[in-house]
Amino acid sequence: xxxPCFVDANVFxxxxxxxxxxxxxxxxxxxxxxxxxxxxxxxxxxxxESYVVLxxxxxxxxxxxxxxxxxxxxxxxxxxxxxxxxLRRAHEIxxxxxxxxxxxxxxxxxQLQDCALLLTEDLQDNGVYGTVTVRSxxxxxxxxxxxxxxxLPRAPSPHRPRGRPRRAVRVSPPAP
Length: 176
Description:
Blueprint: E1 5-7, H1 9-15, H2 21-37, E2 40-41, H3 44-58, H4 65-72, H5 84-97, H6 101-112, E3 117-119, E4 128-129, E5 132-135
Parallel strand pairs: 1-2, 1-3, 3-5
Antiparallel strand pairs: 4-5
Helix pairs in contact: 1-2, 1-3, 3-4, 5-6
């Protein structure tokens, strides 16, 4: 993998939820890879959401203390706090890309941590939001992560620019 990778809540949830064994295995593989390579990034919002969802799923099975310890171990990734910088960036993202507020805060947190890759199934797979490329951890093989997911430079537009057309400057022929 070429740079930091932001992990959304659904990856943490599937890693702790045995109801879908294939997604559980894939989520665990991603988290293990990012842990080993020290490239995992997340936010306080994501860990909070993960805890709440996993706790709700665990109510039928027993103790939530294990859930807390599982979430707490990701504190070493220094989860980004949701502060005014994240909220301002999220507002820009929400307006520009017309995605939900909560998805905008996730993308903003990924951008502010210089992540090229965002693992989530909540946004369109292969979607590009500024410098962040979204990939589903359940369609992207873990070994494919070696590719670079930096956003490509913007190609020049094939359309005419907006506004009034510029007047052509008339050049007089030289005097004899």
